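Lab meeting, item 3. Inverse folding demo.
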């Protein structure tokens, strides 16, 4: 994590996101496993998986709070309020609470944590599992707390700082985004097979194509449209394919898909806010 100021990190939740976070924190190398504590509600299998990483595991939130000065909330939004209430009696004023729960605003979290001031929200994605998350951190709040949360989450992958109001858009773009890319990969493999390639060959070529294209977009310093022009010579095969994708309005479909996800994120947040008010 590279954050010498942090004595210990406590993670509430031992599910998919927590496991990804733990792997990222440990791979980041800045914090030894003995300085990480994980609590869940009682699922021994998941707690056992966390224990295999060498971290301290417990179901006692007081224990987690005593061992840490940063607490990460990695539970489902529907469980987050119960967790906030359970944490209240154990939180010290110096605890920084970092929430990765979708749709639960920092104002609600602060209030439900007993007017706890130090809360930062963030949205990583499943790339966390291989330290390749696209993560957004909301920048409101104490600048020192935001920096500290960003340093912690940087062990999962690159960080973008955004206003909290944009976290629904982030959820729609990069939170759900891996699934959009998987859909394109799946469609390309099927198309390769339809054109006569063996499935394993179509899969290997498609996956390497996706990896190479993403790396070129990241590393070449060129925009995606410039990279596309480099391989789309007039009258050639790439142009023939791109024309079909444009005619079928792929840009509009992607635009509408992301918009739909963002609307859904907003609806979930509103339903949630109504339920707890
Ligand atoms: N998965 C993703 O790609 C992703 C990406 C970005 C953000 N997130 C966010 O990460 C959060 C967690 O998602 P997930 O996929 O990791 O969920 P998950 O796999 O269902 O895990 C949830 C964890 O929360 C624990 N928990 C529930 N209530 C608890 C309580 N009262 N006290 C202590 N632990 C409690 C559960 O413990 P038990 O198993 O013992 O019940 C479980 O370990 C969500 O808010 C989600 O929005 C997820």
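The presenter then showed the designed sequence:
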């Amino acid at each position: 994590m590279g954050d010498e100021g942090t004595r210990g990190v406590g993670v509430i939740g031992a599910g998919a996101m927590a496991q990804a976070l733990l792997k990222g924190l440990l791979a980041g190398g800045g914090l030894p496993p003995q300085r990480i504590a994980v609590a869940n509600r009682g699922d021994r299998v998941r707690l056992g998986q966390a224990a295999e990483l060498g971290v301290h595991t417990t179901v006692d939130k007081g224990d987690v709070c005593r061992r840490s000065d940063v607490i990460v909330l990695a539970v489902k939004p529907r469980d987050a309020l119960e967790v906030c209430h359970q944490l209240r009696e154990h939180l010290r004023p110096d605890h920084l609470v970092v929430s990765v729960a979708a749709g639960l605003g920092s104002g609600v979290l602060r209030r439900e944590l007993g007017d706890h001031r130090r809360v930062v929200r963030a949205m990583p994605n499943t790339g966390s599992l291989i330290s390749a998350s696209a993560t957004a951190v909301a920048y409101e709040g104490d600048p020192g707390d935001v920096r500290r949360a960003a340093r912690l989450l940087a062990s999962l992958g690159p960080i973008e700082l955004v206003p909290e109001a944009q976290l629904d858009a982030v959820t729609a773009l990069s939170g759900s985004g891996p699934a959009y890319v998987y859909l394109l990969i799946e469609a390309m493999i099927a198309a390769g097979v339809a054109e006569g390639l063996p499935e394993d060959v179509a899969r290997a070529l498609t996956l390497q194509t996706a990896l190479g294209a993403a790396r070129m977009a990241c590393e070449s310093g060129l925009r995606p449209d410039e990279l596309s022009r480099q391989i789309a010579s007039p009258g050639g095969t790439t142009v023939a394919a791109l024309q079909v994708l444009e005619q079928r309005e792929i840009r509009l479909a992607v635009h509408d898909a992301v918009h739909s996800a963002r609307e859904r994120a907003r609806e979930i947040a509103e339903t949630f806010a109504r339920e707890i008010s």
